[in-house]
Structure formats: structure tokens, C-alpha cells
Amino acid sequence: MTQTSLSTRAWFELFLLGLIWGGSFLAIRTALDEIGPLTSVLFRTGLAAALLWPIAWIRGYRVPKGAAIWGSFLGMGLLNNVVPFSLMAWGQLHIPSGLTSILNATTAIFGVLVAAAVFADERLTPRKMIGVGLGFSGVIVAIGPAALLKFNLTSTAQLAVIAGTFSYACAGAWARKRLSGLPPLIAAVGMLSTSTLIMTPLAVAVEGAPNLTMGTATWAGILYYAVFATALAYLLYYRVLAMAGAGNLMLVTLIIPPTAIMLGAWVRSEDLSAQAYAGFVLLALGLVVLDGRLLRRNRV
After folding, report:
1. Is 2 among the domain residues?
2. pLDDT, tens digit, for every residue of 240-276?
3. Over the range 251-276, which residues count as b (16 or more CB within 10 Å of their CB) and which as e?
4. What domain range is 246 assigned to?
5. Burial of 52 by CB count in 10 Å (0-12 exposed, 13-18 middle, 19+ buried)?
6. Taking the model in full, what pTM does it have?
7. Residue 236 above 70 pLDDT?
8. Can you tell me the mean pLDDT for 215-232?
9. Is position 259 within any domain?
10. Has residue 122 been placed in a domain?
11. Where are the beta strands (DSSP E) in 81-161?
């Protein structure tokens, strides 16, 4: 199957999505200076849901009914929001935001493996196996082989981020099996709503009631990652998906880390090791192999 060619508008919106998501790592890390990781997730899902519900109603959608559909939203909320957002937010307390964004790119690698395990039409071809191998090699290089042999706070945080990307990959399979017939906006708002219902008691029990008397920088970070990098990014995501197709949309994972790395270095003076950059190069090469277009072009 050939990939959909990208129009100028699709390229622009793809890069815009990558820039928005790349900026979310700095925004989350900024907010974490004053709030806990679970509270940061609660603000993210709650504010995004509050923004998207009115948009859904304006567009003529109504609240879905039935235990089955809300059970599907609950599963999606756990896999795509509660688990990965919480793990990654905690991980960012102990590793640079740029490194978090690099490890986040393994979502596409895990996505291939999960899809191959769950769906008969997503078999693991030799090209995909090479891409997966390169991707995991990049992760090992970025983390550092020595970190795999010891479990200090830094290595545990790195593994938490990777576990979050695996949850993202499982969410993709869940969405295909349980939410494929729903309008994307309803799927997003249902997921965010159930996530908020889970995070509210969890965050309060672990970190206490949210303190709303926070600094300007904290509120700016919260509003950015909740409004722009979650609510509006979901709307943009589905626009790009419709214009460019799922294969092209994977390219956004190559745009996010450079944005996050530059912002982390500029705003927070984060400094990544040479091995982190080398790992990203290997991971990016794995994603290019998985995408497959450059290989097909070279055969012509």
C-alpha cells in the first residue's frame, strides 16, 4: 500500500503538531516545579475535557449512552492518559525533558509490536523487524548500557517513561478495536472525561487537594499543556490524520524531540550527553525504516 503524499498544508499542520507537542515537555517540567506529577495530569485531562465538551456540543454531538461505550472510554483513558501521563510526568522530575522526548519516540516502535501481536493484518515484516531493532538500539544507547545494569533514580525514571510509551502503543490497539466507529472528537472527550474521574481521587489521595495559588510560570505551563498540547492538539491530530494518513502522521515523532531538546536547553539550561543524541539518531533511523518510503524511493 502506498503512502498518501503530503500537501503543503498537511506538511505545515504536521510540523505545527510536532512543535506543539515538543513544547509540552518544557511546559510539564515547568509546572512540576510547583505541583506533583499526579496533580499535573489531573489539570491536563480536566481542563482539556472542559474545553472539548462545549466544542462537541456546538458541533451537534451529544453525550454517548451505554455502559459498553463508557467502558471503552475508561480503558482508553487508562492506557492513553492516566498511565503514560503519570509515568512520564514522574520521570521528568529526574531526567531532562529533552531525553524524555527522545524516549517518547519509542511509542511508534512499540506500536508496531503491539499491532503485530493483536491484529492479523499487521504482521511483522523483515523491514519492520529491522526498524524495531534499530529503534531499540537507539533507546539502549540513549539510556546508556550501564544504566540497564543498575536501578538508581535516573534509570528508574527512564524506564518509567518507556513504560509510558508502551501504554501509548496499547492505547492505539485499544482505540482500533473499541473506538474505531466513533467520531474522533467524542472519542477524545470521552477518554479525557474518564481520565479526569480517575485522576481526581488519585491525585487528592496521594498529593493532596490542588493549590490554586501558584505562580505565573506554573499556570502558563499548565494552560499550555492542557489547552494547546492536549485539547487543541487532539483536534489538530485528527485533521492531519485525515489529510496525511496514519503512515505520514508517524513523522511527527521525528519533529518532537529536536523541539523539546532546544527548548529545554534554552529555558532550563538542560544539557544532554552525546550518547543521548546518538541514541536519537539511531531511533530516528529506525522510524525511517519503519516508514519505508526512503527505501522504496531508492529502489526506483
Report:
1. no
2. 877 766 667 777 888 899 999 999 999 999 989 899 9
3. bbbbbbbbbbbebbeeeeebebeeeb
4. 8-299
5. buried
6. 0.91
7. yes
8. 96
9. yes
10. yes
11. none
